[in-house]
Design brief:
With 307 residues, the chain is of the alpha/beta class. The chain has 2 domains: 175 residues, Rossmann fold (3-Layer(aba) Sandwich), CATH 3.40.50.300; 125 residues, no CATH class. It is built from 10 helices and 9 strands. Helix 3 links the parallel strand 2 and strand 3. It is elongated and about 75 Å long. The termini are far apart.
């Protein structure tokens, strides 16, 4: 990064007007798509395969009064064909205007790139009239000026996708978000079907059911009598101890793998009593552990008068 860009960046941050711009380029097959998904998870406004000539317009658009877009990541690469030749001029224009940016260059060795293209059976953007190896060679020559100009170079030859995600999070996540994993905790009723987007599903139908206590049947797990009934059961106390220990073991692993969102769903028969109480308890435990948590109860308001 040039001295002018550092100075401009510091000035904008001091004025509270900094807008983080990340430009991603590099070899096809080196992980650009994975990188883009990671930036999306970090809250960046992302555009894939953007013609470089439009970068300045994007900067101006996000700088308009009232814009809430503070972080932008764009991918410019050889897929843009003749448009890609404008990238150098676009970077020069950003530097001349004093707008800070970071250029991320993703690469991998030729053998790895050939293997990845053969595994995915994708067409290399520069191999229409030549072999895959020749297309890779031509792309490397095309990108050489940007490889030397990059602020961050990442060689993904020996990286798993999760390792690339972790590295990007480490380098680009705001300090207070570096290890953030947003957790959605929900309750549901098995009789209404499983939540399709759940990552972890826990069946709590083995616990005593308040439904069979007449004074509790019409109440929900958000009400004190139902909560007391469920939590006072010896089976519940033992379950929560084991359940919390499992979550405490699993969630740091998801963080290390670069997962940004996790949905934990607890289900009982109707989604009105046991699962509601235990979803609330689970959410409280995870908040105390430092995770941002949202809690919801999918089936708590179902009209059971027709059942």
């Amino acid at each position: 990064m040039t001295e002018e860009r550092v100075t401009a960046d510091e000035r904008r941050r001091a004025e509270g007007e900094a807008r983080d711009l990340v430009i991603i380029t590099g070899m096809s097959g080196a992980g650009r798509s994975e990188a883009m998904h990671t930036f999306e998870d970090l809250g960046y406004f992302c555009i894939d395969n953007l013609p470089p000539a439009l970068i300045q317009q994007l900067v101006e658009l996000t700088a308009l009064p009232g814009s809430r877009v503070q972080r932008v990541a764009v991918v410019c690469d050889a897929r843009g064909r003749e448009f890609f030749s404008e990238l150098a001029a676009a970077l020069d224009a950003l530097e001349s205007s004093g707008h800070p940016y970071r250029l991320v260059y993703l690469t991998a060795d030729d053998r790895t790139l050939v293997r990845r293209f053969k595994e995915t059976r994708r067409r290399h953007p520069l191999s229409d009239e030549c072999s895959l190896a020749d297309g890779i060679r031509a792309e490397r020559e095309l990108l050489a000026p940007f490889a030397s100009r990059a602020d961050v170079t990442i060689d993904t030859s020996d990286m798993r996708p999760s390792e690339l995600k972790s590295l990007i999070r480490e380098r680009f996540a705001p300090i207070d978000e570096e290890s953030a994993l947003t957790v959605a905790v929900s309750s549901f009723g098995f009789k209404y079907g499983l939540p399709v987007d759940a990552d972890i599903v826990m069946d709590v139908r083995f616990l005593p059911n308040p439904y069979y206590v007449p004074r509790l049947r019409s109440r929900t797990g958000l009400e004190r009598p139902v909560r007391a009934y469920v939590l006072d059961q010896p089976e519940t106390e033992e379950f929560l101890g084991r359940w919390y220990a499992l979550l405490d073991h699993l969630l740091p692993g998801y963080v290390r793998e670069g997962k940004a969102h996790l949905h934990v769903a607890l289900g009982c028969t109707g989604g009105q009593h046991r699962s509601v109480v235990l979803a609330e308890q689970t959410a409280d435990h995870l908040r105390k552990a430092g995770y941002p948590v949202n809690v919801s109860h999918r089936d708590i308001a179902k009209d059971r008068s027709r059942e």
